[in-house]
Design a protein that fits this description.
This protein is of the alpha+beta class. It has a single domain, classed as Spore Coat Polysaccharide Biosynthesis Protein SpsA, Chain A (Alpha-Beta Complex), CATH 3.90.550.10. It contains eight helices and 13 strands. The chain has a four-stranded mixed beta sheet with strand order 6-11-8-12. Helix 3 packs across helix 5. The chain is globular, with a radius of gyration of 17 Å. The model has no long low-confidence stretch (mean pLDDT about 90).
Length: about 210
């Protein structure tokens, strides 16, 4: 709900989803989740909005397990709420299906991976993750995943766990996640410096 140009950041993510033909979104909320549901209600520009509110923190993985209870189908696209990666969703899904992977991650090239940690790719698959702090060019996760439902129940994980660390990174050698590389506009407002750039970024994106 962080405001950018007079609108919640989430509205810009939903705008992109509308433009990509998405019809139904499950929003996983927690602290102050009622503010989100009160603002957006049950729909936004033709999108059906469904809310899954955590009573206690479950981590990105535990929250996703709960959200899948509101979904149909064997797989879903998962996005971070504080990141806008304006890529082509249909192209991502096509790569995911062609690779036959249980998880595919959208990646972006960057001149400095130090904030996020790098992703090492071999062919069409991710083979390793590098820790944050290393100031080198490379690929980073753009915060968009395609994930098979079954994968969330394969390993003995607690109710609260990290999708990224405890599931994907911990089992990367076995999972061989698919890699979808895109140079689409990317913004992560998770730190104050990046949030300060959001107005210029989104103003340019809307005018493009």
């Amino acid at each position: 709900m962080a405001p950018v140009l007079g609108r919640p950041f989430l509205a810009y993510l939903l705008d992109h989803m509308v433009g990509q033909g998405v019809r139904r979104v499950v929003l996983s909320t927690g602290y102050l989740g009622a503010e989100i549901s009160n603002y957006f209600g049950a729909g936004y520009r033709g999108l059906e909005l469904v809310y899954e509110c955590e009573e206690k923190p479950l981590g990105t993985g535990g929250a996703l397990v709960r959200s899948f209870e509101r979904l149909e189908g064997d797989a879903a696209m998962v996005l971070n709420g504080d990141t806008l990666f304006a890529l082509d969703y249909a192209a991502l899904m096509a790569v995911h299906k062609a690779a036959g992977a249980e998880v595919t991650i959208a990646l972006r090239r960057t001149p400095d991976c130090s904030r996020y940690g790098g992703v090492v790719v071999c062919g069409e698959h991710i083979v390793r993750f590098r820790a944050a702090g290393e100031p080198a060019p490379g690929l980073i996760s753009g915060g968009i995943y395609v994930i098979a439902r079954e994968l969330l129940h394969r390993y003995p994980l607690p109710a609260r766990f990290s999708l990224e660390k405890d599931l994907i990174e911990a089992h990367v050698a076995e999972l061989k996640p698919g890699a979808f590389i895109s140079d689409a506009p990317f913004l992560d407002i998770g730190v104050p410096e990046a949030y300060g750039e959001a107005a210029g970024f989104l103003g340019h994106l809307r005018g493009a």
